[in-house]
Amino acid sequence: EPEVTQTPSHQVTQMGQEVILRCVPISNHLYFYWYRQILGQKVEFLVSFYNNEISEKSEIFDDQFSVERPDGSNFTLKIRSTKLEDSAMYFCASIPPYGNTIYFGEGSWLTVV
Amino acid sequence: SQQGEEDPQALSIQEGENATMNCSYKTSINNLQWYRQNSGRGLVHLILIRSNEREKHSGRLRVTLDTSKKSSSLLITASRAADTASYFCATASGGSYIPTFGRGTSLIVHP
Questions:
Q1: What chain B residue is nearest to A41 in terms of C-alpha separation?
Q2: Burial class (CB in 10 A: 0-12, 13-18, 19+), B2
Q3: Residues of B in contact with A4 (CB under 8 A)
Q4: B70: contact with A, CB 8 A cutoff
Q5: Section B10-19 average pLDDT
Q6: pLDDT tens by residue, A68-87
Q7: Do A100 and B48 count as a contact with CB atoms less than 8 A apart?
Q8: Which of A42, A45, A106 is facing B42, going by the closest CB pair?
Q9: Residue A13 bridge partners (DSSP)
Q10: In this structure, what is the dihedral angle of CA atoms B25, B36, A79, B99, given to the nearest 10 degrees?
Q11: Parallel, antiparallel, or unpaired for β B43-50 and B31-37?
């Protein structure tokens, strides 16, 4: 069964460094999402992306965050200058055309030290 | 906030028993979805119920939706140790189909 793949599975970075998290959504899906989950807390919506632009974003998704679809397959989340509180699991997800079910990747665990 | 809130926060049962988790939300929804998350893993979609539906089944899962009470329940029958996971409800409302998640119910099934 097709799946959303994410890399890296785990990254440790120093505070202030830039981080890029990568995702390959399922190939025929049109809507892409980033969510995050701080350890032990709820899953929080960050941003949705459709037709090569941001369609919705949450308050969490401030100027430190950006998303891109640099080619036809990859979907990236960039954090420009990481803070300790950015430590979380970041999930990429996608939705098929005419569907409501979100398919999540396994996540990228980011640790900021 | 639109997000669903699950209840109880934690549930511990013996294998073979039924597990019931509840979700409450605050405003009208388009649909409600239940997801499962094994520790440290991604979210796996279990079932979606639309606002005009009252009950859905999928294998050992049964989901109900009461829009008048703004609540949903997830029943897992004949639980197995492998059902041990966190279970989340997610709601979408208004013009947005983006699910927002609650804090989840942590289910432990003892063999």
A1: B103
A2: middle
A3: 42
A4: no
A5: 96
A6: 988 878 999 999 999 999 99
A7: yes
A8: A106
A9: A112
A10: -30
A11: antiparallel
Which has the higher per-residue pLDDT, A99 or B82?
Answer: B82
Q: Can you tell me which residue has the tokens 């890296």? A: A8
- Does the beta-carbon distance from A102 to B101 stay under 8 Å? no
Cβ neighbours of A35 in B, within 8 Å: 101
Determine contact: B4 vs chain A, CB below 8 A.
Answer: no
**pLDDT tens-digit series, residues B42-68:** 899 999 999 999 999 999 999 999 999
Average pLDDT over chain A reads 92
pLDDT of residue B1: 44
Q: Are the Cβ atoms of A109 and B101 closer than 8 angstroms?
A: no
Q: How far is CA B66 from CA A8, A29, A89, B72, B89, in A?
A: 41, 31, 32, 6, 14
Spatial distance between the Cα atoms of B111 and B108, rounded to a whole number of angstroms:
10
Please indicate if any CB of chain A lies within 8 Å of the CB of B7.
no
Q: What is the dihedral of CA A13, B85, B83, B50, to 10 degrees?
A: -110
